[in-house]
Write a structure and sequence with these properties.
5-stranded mixed sheet, alpha+beta, elongated
């Protein structure tokens, strides 16, 4: 049986509250679980001790049994010092597409050209004013 340590959602609409549970990976997100290991309340401030509560003894037991924590739960465990911090892939989802990058480069080139053009014309105008 593939075990997961994951979040099971509770709470009402727009007021999330999660239980950290050990469950069979084939069960539904909010479905049957084997043991409740803690809670997570995302509505509390990040520095609050009540935001994430875990029974570390039971978490250690389930990790020893081969349970795999989900990404969010592994972040909680890393913050608690149970797991060592692992490198995550930065998916670069915020980077604009090729066409948007090309448009930005063209815009920057035009701005640079516009900034250089008055600077080049200024000495010519000064020289013309000096001749008069």
């Amino acid at each position: 049986m593939a075990m997961k340590i994951r979040l099971a959602r509770g709470g009402s609409k727009k007021r999330p509250f999660y239980r950290v549970v050990a469950a069979d990976s084939r069960m539904a997100r909010d479905g049957r679980f084997i043991e409740k290991l803690g809670t997570y309340n995302p509505l509390l401030p990040k520095d609050s001790e009540e935001r994430v509560k875990l029974d570390m003894e039971r978490v250690q037991y389930w990790l020893g049994e081969g349970a795999q924590p989900t990404d969010r739960v592994s972040r909680f465990l890393e913050a608690a010092g149970v797991l060592e911090k692992k490198e995550r892939a930065n998916m670069k989802k915020a980077v604009p597409g090729k066409k948007a990058q090309e448009r930005a480069e063209e815009k920057a080139a035009k701005a640079a050209a516009a900034a250089n053009a008055p600077a080049e014309e200024a000495p010519v105008e000064e020289a013309a004013a000096a001749e008069e």
